[in-house]
Amino acid sequence: MDYSKVLRNNNKIVSRTGTQGQGIQYTSDLSLRFVLSGNERYDIGRRQLSIYPDSFLVLNRGTKYAVGTEAGDPVQSFAIHFDQQFLQDFQQFRTCGYEELLDKGGETIILQPEFSETIYPFAGDIRYNVFHLKQHLDQGMQDEMLISEYLHHTLINYFNIYNDEVYKKAEKLDFLNHGTKIEIIRRLNLAKEYMYSNYNQNISLEDLAEHACLSVNHLLRTFKQAFGLTPHQFLIQLRLKRSLMLLKDTRYPVNEVVSMVGFECPSSFIRLFRTHYNITPLKYRQSA
């Protein structure tokens, strides 16, 4: 269902289904971009990011981007744009104590933070919250108080993900300087998003290192520290997760799914799938 809903607090929600891309645009607010089926490709500067149903993208205010889709494949997208005042109030709620919040005369101004514009996992609480919000909106819900509560909880969910994906992973790195840790995580996320977007291609360590602006040795050492997996292990797990979606939501033969997610050998794919999920791909499809 397609709609563009602007609330009285100037938050905006856009649901769109189609096969056509959009030209160059600028984000007017912090926005969270979800894809519920299909996939979208975002061009942000020199970066090309592909968003699938297991991930979402965050764009800061003022970012220049273009978005497209795979030719002929319909995409169902869902975007939430947070108004500056709503976001500032949320930040004040998070950072101020109760006494400050109750001080009506306070003039505390909290600047909007700049978040890492990268791909995040769309799972857990944020997935549950967004799907429930969309279900209500699809059914015509007009209660803006309830919608705003959903948006408030979506921000809480996102901040928790950001804390897990940036700050907690940064603390795992064996650097002394906090700023250095955050910068390394930013670069590792460039490598991670490259795998998210090109998982079905033949990716080399040199490709990842180049996109992360790190040497191969630094990439291997810091990636394992931050994510608990080597880049190759991360890529294999990502390919297996994407195969779950294809097996569940499409009727492509298993051998075709193998090549679609980047594996070369069906037998090794089946073995890895069974080891990871304790079920064969065919039985998973039948059960799903």
TrEMBL record:
Spans traversing the lipid bilayer: none
SMART domains (alphabetical): HTH_ARAC
Source organism, top-level taxon: Bacteria
PROSITE patterns from the UniProt entry: HTH_ARAC_FAMILY_2 (PS01124)
InterPro entries documented for this protein: Homeodomain-like_sf (IPR009057), HTH-like (IPR037923), HTH_AraC (IPR018060)
UniProt-recorded Gene Ontology molecular function terms: DNA-binding transcription factor activity; sequence-specific DNA binding
Keyword hit for DNA-binding: yes
Keywords: DNA-binding, Transcription, Transcription regulation
HTH araC/xylS-type domain mapped to chain residues: 189-287
Keyword Magnesium appears in the UniProt entry: no
PANTHER family: ARAC-FAMILY TRANSCRIPTIONAL REGULATOR, HTH-TYPE TRANSCRIPTIONAL REGULATOR EXSA
Protein name: Helix-turn-helix protein
Species of origin: Mucilaginibacter oryzae
